TrEMBL record:
Protein name in UniProt: VTT domain-containing protein
Domain of life: Bacteria
Organism: Zobellella endophytica
Transmembrane segments: 57-80, 101-122, 134-160, 172-191
Ligase is among the record's keywords: no
InterPro entries: DedA_domain, VTT_dom
Listed Pfam families: VTT_dom
Keywords: Membrane, Transmembrane, Transmembrane helix
Any one GO cellular component localisation term in the record: plasma membrane
Annotated VTT domain residues: 60-157
Length: 193
């Protein structure tokens, strides 16, 4: 089934749209609060389609992701009981928040770097940092560093790989897409207990 090939073509059309930087900025902002789709899904094709703007796109993604993180922090800090906790309970994310609190206890501020750079859901940690009243300035600085490293790495790989990488990606996109789906389902089944 060639589902991911069609999706890739659609994403590449969006990547060259004149409003793509605005969409990237909005996606980066909301992804740090609640949005489940990683920014990389939009950033990578944009950097690949217009490599001369790759660093600008990485900068936008970093800036708006950290602004979203600040908003998430403020939600956890000021609106936990009336707004965030009911949402968490409705979505069944209580275990994720408890795990995030445990990670904060184990690793302190470094958990923000880990969550901001890796595929771990950053949004859980932005809200939890506010809930736990983590020192705000280190939260922002570490978020800038982690998110910046991640998004500049993604853009850099797209610039470096260029057309060769795109050809390979198109060749294997459906296999890679289905492998990601299988990995996500397996991770969900392993982590839901």
């Amino acid at each position: 089934m060639r589902l991911f090939s069609r999706l890739y073509r659609q994403v590449m059309m969006w990547a060259v749209h004149r409003h793509a930087p605005v969409y990237l900025s909005m996606t980066s902002f909301v992804e740090s609060i609640f949005w489940p789709v990683p920014v990389d899904v939009m950033l990578a094709p944009m950097a690949l389609a217009k490599p001369e703007l790759a660093w600008r796109y990485a900068s936008l993604a970093t800036l708006f992701s950290v602004l979203g993180a600040v908003f998430g922090y403020l939600l956890g800090y000021a609106l936990w009981e009336p707004l965030v906790e009911p949402f968490i309970n409705t979505m069944g994310y209580q275990d994720k928040i408890l795990l995030a609190q445990q990670w904060f206890s184990d690793w302190g501020v470094w958990v923000i770097f880990i969550a901001s750079f890796t595929p771990i859901p950053y949004k859980v940690f932005t809200v939890t940092a506010g809930l736990l009243q983590m020192a705000f300035l280190p939260f922002v600085v570490i978020s800038l560093v982690g998110r910046g490293m991640r998004f500049f790495l993604v853009s850099g790989l797209m610039v470096w790989g260029g057309v060769r990488m795109e050809r390979k990606l198109i060749q294997y996109i459906d296999i890679l897409g289905w492998l990601c789906v299988v990995a996500a389902v397996a991770a969900y089944l392993l982590l839901r207990h």
